[in-house]
Amino acid sequence: MDYFSESIKQAIRTVPDWPKPGVQFRDITTVLQDRTAFRKLIDAFVHRYHSQDIDAIAAVDARGFIIGSALAYELNASLVLVRKKGKLPFDTLVEDYELEYGTASVEIHKDAFNPGDKVVLVDDLIATGGTMLAAARLIRRIGARIFEAAAMIDLPDLGGSAKLRDEGLKVYTVCEFAGD
User: Fold this and answer.
1) What is its EC number (predicted)?
2) Which residue among 19, 65, 93, 153 is least crowded, i.e. fewest CB within 10 A of its CB?
3) What is the pLDDT of residues 18-41, one digit of tens each?
């Protein structure tokens, strides 16, 4: 792990037993509150993608918006919001996905991308991968190409990053919390 990754990981607060016993919640608000850590986080993504001619950043509701907006600005790319169902005002495509106890849905505007656009899909964290997989399916349905799925944190023990790779997506995360 490089210096940037380690310093960002150290800035993430772990809240034990939240929202339920046994869960180690990774709280990113401490990274956002630390201007040096936040700059390092955005710089890590910018340095990764600055030479890739990215057309758009697709940011997942809601914490993905924070990273995605700063990254889109720095890369001079458009910002596309992948929202929870019922939050977008125009013609949308909807994708359902499985949760631990039920289903949820995300949506995107039908005109969010041009066919062939090169897109980075961004969220704060990859856990089980359901939301990002649903977002990836929406992006592909429009005809855009996903360059990479990216997040600040990977929780590999929950299998989400492996599921994304199994679907043919490249995955990049700044840091991971495995086995703890």
Assistant:
1) 2.4.2.7
2) 19
3) 999 999 999 999 999 999 999 999
Q: Helix 3-11 crosses helix 35-49 at what angle (to 10 degrees)?
A: 140
| pLDDT for 102 | 82
Q: State mean pLDDT over 87-103.
A: 91
How many angstroms separate the Cα of 51 from the Cα of each of 17, 32, 40, 56? Answer: 41, 25, 18, 14
pLDDT band at 1 (very low <50, low <70, confident <90, very high): low
Q: Quick one: which H or E segment has residue 26?
A: strand 24-27
What are the two backbone dihedrals, phi and then psi, of residue 23, each rounded to the nearest 5 degrees?
A: -90, 135
Cβ atoms 122, 60 nearer than 8 A: yes
- Separation of CA 57 from chain center: 10
Residues 6+ apart with CB under 8 A from 71: 42, 45, 46, 49, 57, 77, 120, 122
**Cα separation of 13 and 81, whole Å?**
26
- Cβ neighbours around 92 below 10 Å, total: 18
pTM, to two decimals: 0.96
The residue extents of the domains of the chain are: 53-176
CATH number attached to the domain at 53-176: 3.40.50.2020
